[in-house]
Amino acid sequence: MVRRKAPTRATRLASEFRNVALGALIALFAPAAGADEPIFVDLARDTGLDFVHFNGMTGDFYFPEMTGQGGALLDYDGDGDLDLYLVQGGMLGPGKTLADALEPPPPGRPEGDRLFRNDLSDSRLRFVDVTEASGISALGYGMGAATGDYDGDGDLDIYVTNYGPNQLLQNRGDGTFADVTAETGAGDDRWSTSALFFDYDADGLLDLYVVNYVAFDLERNPACYAASSRRDYCGPSGFPPQADRLLRNLGGGRFEDVTLRALAGARPSPGLGAAAADLDGDGRLDLYVANDGEANQLWINAGDGGFIERGLLAGVAVNGEGRAEASMGIDSADFDGDGDEDLFLTHLSGETNTLYVNDGSGLFEDHSVRSGLGAPSVRYTAFGTGWLDFDRDGWLDLMILNGAVRTLDAQARAGESYPLKQPNQLFRGDGDGSLAEVTAIAGAPFAMPEVSRGLAIGDLDNDGDEDAVQFNNNGPVRLLINRSGARSNWLGARPLSALSEATWLGTRTIAALADGRRIARRSRADGSYCSARDSRVILGIGEQADIARLDVAWPGGARSAWLDPPLGRYLTLYGTQ
Amino acid sequence: MRGSEGGRGSNRFRRRARRVPLVIALVMSCVAPVAAQDDSWLAVPAPSVEGLEPSVAAQLERLREHVAARVADSGVPAADLGEAFGELGRHYQAYDLSELAERCYSIARRLAPEDFRWPYLTGYLKQSGGRLEEAVESYQTALGIFNEVPPAWVRLGLTYRALNRLDDAEGALRTALALDPTSAAAHAGLGQVLHDAGRFEEAVAALEKALELEPDANLLYYPLGLSYRALGDLDKAGEALVRHGEVGVRPADPLVDEFAQLTTGERVHLIRGRAAFDAGRFEEAAVEFRRAVELEPGSVRARVNLGSALAQLDQVDAAILEFEEALRIGPGNTAALFNLGSLRERRGELELAAASYQEAAGYSPRDAEVRLGLAEVQRALGDLENALSNFGKAVAIDAGAETGWIGEADVLARLGRFDEALSRLETAQQLMPTSGRIAHGLSRLLAACPEPSLRDGERALDLALRVAQAQPNVAHVRTVAMALAESGRCEEAAEWQGRAVDAAREGGDQRSAEAFEAARATYAAGPPCRPPIGVTTQP
Predict the structure, then answer these.
(1) How high is the pLDDT of residue A220?
(2) Higher pLDDT, A162 or B335
(3) Which of A341, A429, A533, B128 could be disulfide-bonded to A277 (CB atoms 3.0-4.6 Å)?
């Protein structure tokens, strides 16, 4: 137990530090990678993470088969390390069986989503498939997963999005899960992609936002063609867009659909990503929805149970030229260290990925080009993405996963069976508002073209730097372990509400450094694409020796502060409701 | 998924182009035959024809064989051979076979190093593919050969901008404007560069100039709005942003625009037509879809798309013929049936429209739009029970369908089932509390329900005032008057009704003005100022 520091001002918050510094000392003394060593290495196979996504493609070009998938990083068993939920595909189409699959899975490979438990020991990762023991039976055609403690019992539950009926899996706290979709009213039978939990009405209960895409009917699979006249995958424009769903948590294990009431004027849009953050600086969680080929939506939380759409005037509905882009992935974070949340969106090839920089009042400017993120993105179709500080210098870096959605002619001519493969990218934040591409030294997983989709970032080995999970469509999952050898100091934080032992999503933890810099990180599991990340935050402080003061801005407006927090470990921060 | 450029149709620009670089093709520096020693670099790039539409495969194979024959003929001058490779490259590029196109251009450049076109098209290809630094090199090479080409300077400027080389971008775009001061694309690009550079007043001037030259290019209102926003003029920013649309501007560029003429086959025309349709360029879309129909007369998709484009152009008879032909070829196409229903409804052929919608509903029973179309026609035909059923099905499928809720309540009211009508509108209002249409329908019913026990003047007034404040039109003003009358505030009711009378007179609608005036007189006569029988809930 770490001694509690006195708050810097009078507060009635029941705040304390609780050390859960798993691996903290290990991290401090772990051997650092050499300068010429890659930043990330793939340890999936070495750690028993044996999962290969199967999209069931048959040559019929069913739209959903190239669209998934993601997964979730979560500590489902409360043992202090991150476990992994992986979403699986399957066969699509009337009457189709494995015999029709172009690339069938090996015989005996289990069907459905999988839960892998992390048996981290002495900084060694080992994953064990515990799906059957967990009682999870998720056999839908999977897209993604979201995590949150919706029932406030202190453990993380999982919401699974599918092409078809979604599932809410309630964590019973004993290593098993119960499917509570029907009794909670959280179901949705449409084609859902991303989802997120957030407490939009600040009542202490996590509400749920479900992003829906388009109405695609397998029995009416239209033929779409590339410019070359070859059959190819369709885009969303030929299908009716589907309305998203906002479910308010009523407590007692029930959700109420408040979409029409709370999101006035919401129009069905082909949604793929979403993030919930305070984007206008008023202390309330707003909502940003990324749509594929249509204007994105910025729902500003009015504080009365409703939201007002302000994307166009705020400058985030379309790019700086005024064009709606094919938005897929998203992440919101304070990348430039000015205290507000900025937005990063991933897009189709031929478009740039887009960085919207917040002026602090909720007005944004498209800085894609001047940040250096625009030009390197035009040739790729990007999906999963996430801000992370892989070198712990206090400036956020950016990981981007790519994979085409239309056939790449050169790969097709070379005989590639799934010619959508593209390499992934890593950018390092320079602290001046720009990011430099460092893909060349990022490691082998970045040099290997794959059809990547979801990305979940988190400290899997609890060594104080951020690792990542790369979810590949019709390919193996990659476990990207950070080997950057960052030696700078850090602090990890896990802010909890008084009502739950699970992370209080939306909390901002702000480190004030001696040199005047303030590093703010939002606890979140949302963003990216169809994936849920580690909701703990890591504050890397670069060359600084210590953190002068740690501020915590809790959802709802309360604040706490501590002086001289201990470094090199994860701290549990307790707030109040 | 979408075209890389959403700009105006090329024909208009072609007429405006002042300098056309095609003449460069005539400036051939090399007329000597190609040396026949190591000619492996002259291997003709060939696509895989697997999966290509047969006519496309045949076209490309024919072109490739032509080039191969020229290569085999040692007497062909290098410049002619370069022309052959370049032409093949252009066809590959037109079909988005970029790697093959680039290889062809590379060979063409080696054979005809003084031909502007091949480095220029290489630059365009690389720019489109995101290889921006390489694109700059290619454009510079092309402009080194011939520099009086405005679209090349525009594209170079836009590429510099994408690389954040704002000074270079400004220089290139100003060069383009020096060559062609009427280039809207150059003004637009310059405006965006100036915005990026934080020179917002200059950006506004450049963007407004571009809009003056191309008034339809409503995409430009967005950067214009953001520039006004940066200048702190939020009123002008708001005005510009609401005018923002999807029509962009692109440089008049015959070399690029001609790609469209190089392709064949139904599919490419469908793709191109769809892009034009989505951008609101319906005439261009109709041309492309018609070519698709000509190439594949049995294509249901081509005919449905052609019919849709014709309908957008108000060529209703021709559109109906296309939908009917599509249904003859492929019965059960929901889009054709729905569109046919809409057009017949537009022509007042309600029985036929109902039949089309009914058939569409049979094939797509969970299509809310089809249900709404069917219900509205049935209501117009007086088939209220079926209309009620289909409005109900529409809202069951899509709870956000305001028209469905209002239609259902309206039909219930027409059937005299006022309490049910009220109940449905209450439910809809709970679901959509900010919906003006729902609130208006509910306030009308509360103010003027023929069943007096269901009226609630105060609540009607509260709703009606909020709706009228948000949207002060005649219908909403009249509803306020009704609600005031129901509340016993006759003098105010007369005053509000007077506004409706004035509006009708100003609009030249004398008949409505007289009817409104009669109600106003009733209100003005004082309590009780409500007629015993009200009106339906139809807004």
Answers:
(1) 84
(2) A162
(3) A341
Residue with tokens 């509360």: B446
pLDDT number for residue B447? 93
Burial (CB < 10 A; 0-12, 13-18, 19+), residue A153, is middle
DSSP string, B62-112: HHHHHHHHHHH-TTSBHHHHHHHHHHHHHHHHHTT-HHHHHHHHHHHHHH-
For A440, the token pair is 């060349």
pTM listed for this prediction: 0.84
The CATH number that domain B434-539 falls under is: 1.25.40
Which residues partner with A387 through β-bridges? A398
> Which tens digit of pLDDT belongs to each residue from A493-548?
999 977 777 778 999 999 999 889 999 999 999 999 999 999 999 999 988 989 99
| Predicted confidence (pLDDT) at residue B371 exceeds the cutoff of 90 | yes
pLDDT band at A35 (very low <50, low <70, confident <90, very high): low
Set of chain A residues whose Cβ sits within 8 Å of the Cβ of B244? 312, 318, 322
CA distance A284 to A305: 11
Q: Helix or strand or coil: residue A451?
A: coil
* A266 contacts B400? CB cut-off 8 A: yes
pLDDT band for position B37 (cuts 50, 70, 90): low
3-state secondary structure A270-296: CEEEEEEECCCCCCCCEEEEEEECCCC
ipTM: 0.88
Please state, in angstroms and as integers, the Cα–Cα distance from residue B394 to each residue in A263, A409, A577, B399, following that order: 21, 43, 43, 8
Query: Which chain B residues have a beta carbon less than 8 Å from that of A349?
Result: 130
| Facing residue for B97 by CB, picked from A231, A323, A409 | A409
Q: Which CATH superfamily is domain B17-143 in?
A: Tetratricopeptide repeat domain (1.25.40.10)
For chain B, the average pLDDT equals 88
In a 13 Å sphere around the CA of A51, the CA atoms on its Cβ side amount to 34
pLDDT given for residue A16 in this prediction = 36
Q: For residues A118 and B449, what is the distance between their CA atoms, to the nearest angstrom?
A: 66
- CATH number of B332-423: 3.30.160.250, 1.25.40.10, 3.10.450.50, 2.60.40.10? 1.25.40.10
The neighbouring-strand residues paired with A355 are A344
